[in-house]
Design a protein that fits this description.
The structure is a single chain. This protein is mainly α. 81% of the residues lie in helices and 0% in strands. The chain has one domain: Amino acid/polyamine transporter I (Up-down Bundle), CATH 1.20.1740.10. The chain has helices spanning 14-26, 29-42, 46-71, 75-82, 86-114, 120-136, 141-166, 170-178, 185-196, 200-210, 219-251, 259-296, 300-304, 306-327, 330-355, 359-362, 369-396. Mean pLDDT is 79; it is low at 1-12.
Amino acid sequence: MGRPPHDSPREPGALAGAAFLMATSAIGPGFLTQTAVFTEAFRNDFAFAILASLLVDVSAQVNVWRVLGVAGRRGDELASALLPGLGAVLAAMVAAGGLVFNVGNVAGCGLGLAVFGVPPAIGATLSAAASLALLLRPRAGRALDTFAKALGALMIVLTAAVMAVSGPDYLGALRRAVWPQHVAFLPVVTLVGGTVGGYITFSGVHRLLDAGIAGEAEVPRLTRASVLGILVTGAMRVLLFLAVLGVVARAGGLDPANPPASAFRLGAGEWGYRFFGLVLWSAAITSVVGCSYTSLSFFPRLRMARAAGRAALLAFVGLSLALYLLVGRPVRLLILAGAVNGLILPLTLGVVLLAARRPALMGGYRHPLLLQAVGWVAWAVSLAAGALAVREMVTRM
């Protein structure tokens, strides 16, 4: 799984590609399921969780991308340079969180094909086999990126159409975004975990490092790309929230076995339901591949040894499928995946913020004090929300 050849640092599409790699990693089956489930549970109050999570997302991602980009080091490399052995701990935690996320991705494949009458377990197994076939193909990344972008655009268009048809309470949602009646911490930490937790926030910046985009001169580009990735995920989150909000207000509850698919069915009819199944499956299978590769990119030996890396990717996908088949309960797995990755964020963000103050790692670059302060606030929020979410998660599970 050696590093791909470096692209030119001036390649026009490199930054957008990194931003959309991060966004498509986040906008997967867990993203869709979490948003639908929490919208149904909290209605207008969920707008506050979305806004709070977006603020934490931006603070975390800009810090991570700028520091890693300037240092020219991957997450595990930066952690090891900060404290010997810490890189291995971070890699293990990210891989463990990525595994949970990947189990949710495999479950999402099953949920997507279930729309077409395929039993979830069979659909997940076929999808895992297809993802392995893609992983074995040389240079499959570019085709997967194009496929994910096209389906992502269709998903956004369909979601916007469902939102317009469902007629949600726009003003009510806007008011609750800044003044909620009830604040729940599980949605906040789950959304943060599903957007910038675990491996996701590293996926785009690791791609930029592979493309040779690093150093202090690249700070403006690193910042723009990191914000773009969050804006894409935020726009999709808001559209889906409003679409589901209008559906549940008009039609009542969602199908607990497949909440996002039932929302599209109620909002856009049978064709919307079928189309969403295809998009969900496509998002899930690309997430299986992306999650597997990025999680294992934290291990230097796997990056450098192609045969060992390919074997590890195959084992990672196979274990994800086995755990799904043993555990089942795909909707709860998708909620758990985001929460687990949200709990990893305090460690990863803390490592980055500490490294930002080390001249030996950052050279002549001085990380802005305001950005550091905002980052530490995001760290404290993620730590507190994660601790409180554990209690809520145990109660709900």
